[in-house]
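Thread: "does anyone have the structure for this chain?"

Original post by V.I.:
We have the sequence but no experimental structure in hand. Need at least a predicted one for the grant figures.
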Amino acid sequence: MLGVKQRTALLQKEISGAASTSQLLEAVTKNLAAVDAIHASTALYRTAIFSATPAARLAVAADPRWLLLLGCVEQQAGRLDARGVASSLWSIARLHPECPSPTSALTTLQNAAAHHALWDTAAPQSIANAAWAQARLTGSTQTSSVLAALAPAAAAKARLMKPGELAQVLHAFGSAGYKPSGQWAQRLWAACDADLDAFAPRELAIVLWSYARLAHNPGGSQVRRMAERLAMHKQACDLQAVSLTFWALATLKEAPAEPVLAALFAQAASHLGTAATPQPLCNLLWGAAQLRHDPGPTVVSAALSRAMALAPALRPADVAQLSHALIQLRYAPGPRTVDAIGAALLSRLLEYSEAQLVGILHALGRMGWKPAQMEGARLVTRAAGLGNGEGLVTALSRLGVLPK
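Reply from O.Q.:
Generated one for you, tokens below.
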């Protein structure tokens, strides 16, 4: 008869050797009483690895054995070390959102991750994986607690982290808008700066974006040097990297030399038609306008055309950025495009703040927008709902919606 250690080793071998998600879940299901912390975290990690496509993740979510695996993870969470907690959080985040986890399982893991001492001896990769999961699992009530626990370990081990790990950590803190301290931010910046040549373009862009999100400027010359490194990188920058960089530089109010901006924008210009969402296009144009870089009417037209082709996905912030940028860049879109921007505004009218509405309506007025009677009525109703502030009333009057 096999002893406990032998049965444990055999189950781990079965889980590690499974050739599909179904085999993994079956190995756990038929051995529920024997599943320990290592078995559970390994099975969860391998499930995430196998489920590389949305369809695969949906299939896992539809399998009743998935909840049994999560039950094991939840039960064993208190016995996991830092690597196990980080791996489990990373796996749940990778499976998200097509394969959501019950709140209780995620909360239990997040509570385990919120213990500062857990990360004292953790490897840099575990810290980065746990941080990455926080950025992915938006809306979790424990995010700040987990980041607070990760922050000291991240600072202590920043110089040991690879570029991708540093970018993951900073992206998580930037996404949450959580800055432990200025000293913490400077320490991680110093780690990035010390190994600047090893960063890929997207990683450099994420670093700049994160510091802008944290409202922390590590120093104008340092920010501009990172932008210069990005512009001269041996690897070409994609649209997302350039968009993040322009948004970050504009937010930090740090404008590199014009040749640097031109070189960066030129790399994005050839990829404008590949944008899957309007956000990077709006960020790019807004950043260029704020930095007083004029890419020329042909490029602005191409970016605008692609953004409007994706108009159903335009968020209030996107419309605000886009309308502001067009005015600042002195670009006059045609009447159809102006009407399309107005339609995008009206489609999500209740989501706009008063400040956003004032800026957009002033911009649309300068572009020659003439809202139809029913459109004007909707704008008047929304203005009343916001208290009929002076700026909003003035903007509506200039559009001819209200008497002057």
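V.I.: this helps a lot. The two ends are 93 Å apart (CA to CA).
O.Q.: and The mean pLDDT is 95.
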